[in-house]
Amino acid sequence: MADSREVAFRGGGFAPQAKPWVGVLVFITVICIIEYGTRQGIISNLTLPRPTDVLATFLDLWRSGLLWSHLLPSLSRLFVGAALGATAGICIGVLIGLFSLIRAGLVPLVAAIFPIPKIALLPLFVIWFGIDEASKYALIAFGTFTPTVVATYGAVDNVDRTLIRMGQSFSLSWFSIVTKIVLPGAMPGILSGLRISLAIAIILLVAAEMLGAEYGIGAYILEAGSLYDLERLFVGVTILSLLGVLVSTLIGYTEKRLLSWRG
Question: What is the CA radius of gyration of the chain?
Fold first, then answer.
């Protein structure tokens, strides 16, 4: 009788495994290489500051209270602008995916405005909304809106039509099919689109704050760049990077909560 042995489970379906320590290790390695290179003269301090000097500048910014004076206005502008643009984009994208008439009317319009560099429209938004907060909100919202629309109606289109036909065969109402089949099936694509949209929102936030903003991360970076203060400049860039990581983490948490049914 042949020896029986346990067969390893092979039905994982390429499910990704969470290994956050790998990303942390990569960041630490890069920082250590830069620190070593700048101390040894391999990397010029005129082109790249020491990470320890950047950290010291960040701590000075924290102790002085200026960190929150710049960060809080940026977070407010990002939240308001991105919320407006993403909400409108998801709503319009779902309507385009569900109704042929709306698709025929809006898809050509979205295709026309999508490739336009949104930063190039900043002077126009200043003319329309003034140099105060409204123009910054509008730019971030508009820049978030178009990629969200494209990602949303693409996600709706990619929902398995077999599931929709199955719902129809069970005499589900149109509203039930949309809420129980289409939207849950489109949610992974919508959330993936939001990752891109919110990254664009951060870029537009910096551009908007470089024009007519006294406080904000963009204004802080602009001032540091004009003075060629590399330590302050990299502090601003680091804050933006951390903001991007935070946004990505929040999207990942939302995915786990909303898409737990995927297993």
Answer: 24
Look up residue 125 and give its two tokens.
């938004």
pLDDT per residue as tens digits for the range 70-118: 999 999 999 999 999 999 999 999 999 999 999 999 999 999 998 888 8
- Cβ distance 114 to 147 under 8 Å? yes
What DSSP letter does each residue of 9-43 carry, written as one string? Answer: P---TTPPPP-HHHHHHHHHHHHHHHHHHHHTTSS
CATH class assigned to 68-262: mainly alpha
Q: Where are the domains of the chain?
A: 68-262
Distance CA 246, CA 105 (A): 37
The CA distance from 157 to 190, in Å, is 11
Q: Say yes or no to pLDDT of 38 above 90.
A: no
What pTM, to 2 d.p., does this model score? 0.83
Tell me the backbone φ, ψ of residue 194, rounded to 5 degrees.
-65, -35
